[in-house]
Design a protein that fits this description.
Two copies of one chain form a homodimer.
Chain A: H1 5-19, H2 28-35, H3 39-51, E1 55-58, E2 64-67, H4 76-83, H5 108-124, H6 127-135
Antiparallel strand pairs in A: 1-2
Helix pairs in contact in A: 1-3, 1-4, 1-6, 2-3
The structure holds a DNA duplex (30 and 30 nucleotides).
DNA sequence: GGAGAGTATCATGGCCGTATCATTATGACG
DNA sequence: CGTCATAATGATACGGCCATGATACTCTCC
């Protein structure tokens, strides 16, 4: 029902980069600070996204990360294929090794259409759409600053 | 996207008990053997289901586990509330602490209806329905015996 | 009281999220 | 041209949680 923290960070980071001016490398440190996530761990995730051909990386001064493909071309399905593993939507709800239309667990027929909806949604959500949504100010990618409630 | 192994075992075990004659306690050992899962670990899960009022347990000779409520009354949502934690469907996809209709992550509006479909499905699937499906022989609750492919 | 069953406690191994530190590459500047 | 700051990259280590295993305890029936 839930994504790994790795996937969450990856998505957040990519959206953040997509909201920044194209072509200017974004620092890992800056992303981590903005999202409020541990920068060392984020660095490893970024590396993974580089190997998965979603990002360019540049070292040294003026270095950082840039999106590789045009933002309209990258959708969440591609991201999650990297962070969760390629066939992460194929698993049986009950954990059966084989659970296909021919021989299935008793939930298969109900679960399948929902899974398809999820996959469709993940394909539909491109970095561009998400970045625009964030830039509009109506949606957030980071936690709210928790005001002083403890007084 | 996936349930914990604990949840998978719990569901499988409950369905198995539901396929057995009512009133006769079922042995943990028997369930574990039939499902092919480690019996010590399953025992702990069963305990949890007892504490959560889904099972009766009886010790000593002729002991074992019986379903507590009538099978039509127990649905998967109740089971998962115990094994995954009560509000396991409330979490934000991106892991935001607060993600409601008022202030949300950019995926919230797309994710919410899917989540509702999942919750509805989990409420609909009662142990009775699942047990009947298994008893019909059309659906499985255990892995296929892998024939000798390695020769 | 002994065998059979669940119950409770502790110990192990793996993976994930995290933290720390050394290494390498690159642009800037004197 | 050399070296220095900067940034990504890589290696290593640690704690927590999950799945598992092992062992001792407790209850109940015969």
């Amino acid at each position: 029902m839930i994504l790994s923290r790795t996937s969450q960070y990856a998505i957040q980071a990519l959206i953040y980069i997509a909201t920044q001016p194209r072509g200017e490398p974004v620092l890992n440190r800056e992303i981590a600070a903005h999202l409020g996530v541990p920068s060392a761990y984020l660095a490893k995730i970024m590396q993974n996204l580089c190997k998965g051909n979603l990002l360019y990386s540049f070292r040294g001064r003026l270095g950082g990360f840039c999106l590789r493909e045009e933002v309209e071309k990258t959708d969440l399905m591609q991201v999650l294929a990297l962070t969760e593993g390629k066939g992460f939507t194929d698993d049986c709800v009950l954990g059966l090794k084989v659970c296909s239309d021919e021989t299935a667990c008793p939930m298969h027929s109900r679960w399948k259409p929902i899974k398809e909806k999820v996959v469709h949604m993940l394909h539909e959500q491109t970095l561009e759409k998400l970045a625009v949504a964030v830039q509009s100010g109506k949606y957030r990618i980071t936690d709210l600053p928790h005001a002083a409630f403890d007084a």
